[in-house]
Amino acid sequence: MRPAAPGATSPADDPDAPLVAALRQGDERALAELIRRHGGRLRTLVLRFSGRRDEADDIVQETFVVAWKEAARWRPGAAPFAAFLTRVAINRAIDRARRARLWRWTGLAETAEPEDPAPGPEAAMIDAAETRAVLDDIRTLPDRQRAAILLAAEGDRGVAEIAATLGVSEGAAEQLLVRARRTLRTKLAARQDAGEGDQT
């Protein structure tokens, strides 16, 4: 008999297994009980990761949306369902942190981020596509603007350090960042407008 994989548990040992079975049948009471059991723990975990209560609440909600949609993917006897929920929550928190850093580094935080239209795997794909699009936009910037914005992204460097690295005045470095961010915002807004047009 093959030994159990590390972290594996038998269906009889996992107290959530009956609830997940009911969840697969669309039982909303099972979802409510899973939220009661694990919601507080997940919120505490994500709050420690992000430091933002509103974001922690959103991520926990998204985690249980994923649980509702993808309960069939969990296999009894694998890792406990609680571990599945934890992995989903942490991955969502990491994805949000990466996106927030990208928006902050490029100065796009002043522009409203595209709303997450469908929390879950589809939304993660949309986020990844938008991240790639912004990086592609950065690559199209003039050389000095691209260098300035990438230096700003690398360790949150200040204008003085960027200016010294590029061999320009602080005023010139500031203008490079302003122009680069203006271009990136314009491209982002154009994509958002195009996306809204496709949905009509």
UniProtKB/TrEMBL annotation:
SUPFAM superfamilies cross-referenced by the UniProt entry: Sigma2 domain of RNA polymerase sigma factors (SSF88946), Sigma3 and sigma4 domains of RNA polymerase sigma factors (SSF88659)
Family: Belongs to the sigma-70 factor family. ECF subfamily.
Domain RNA polymerase sigma-70 region: from-to ranges: 34-101
RNA polymerase sigma factor 70 region 4 type domain span: 138-184
BP terms from Gene Ontology: DNA-templated transcription initiation
Originating organism: Prosthecomicrobium pneumaticum
InterPro entries: RNA_pol_sigma-70-like (IPR039425), RNA_pol_sigma-70_dom (IPR014284), RNA_pol_sigma70_ECF_CS (IPR000838), RNA_pol_sigma70_r2 (IPR007627), RNA_pol_sigma70_r4_t2 (IPR013249), RNA_pol_sigma_r2 (IPR013325), RNA_pol_sigma_r3/r4-like (IPR013324), WH-like_DNA-bd_sf (IPR036388)
The protein, known as: RNA polymerase sigma factor
One of the record's GO molecular function terms: DNA binding
Pfam families in alphabetical order: Sigma70_r2, Sigma70_r4_2
Keyword tags: DNA-binding, Sigma factor, Transcription, Transcription regulation
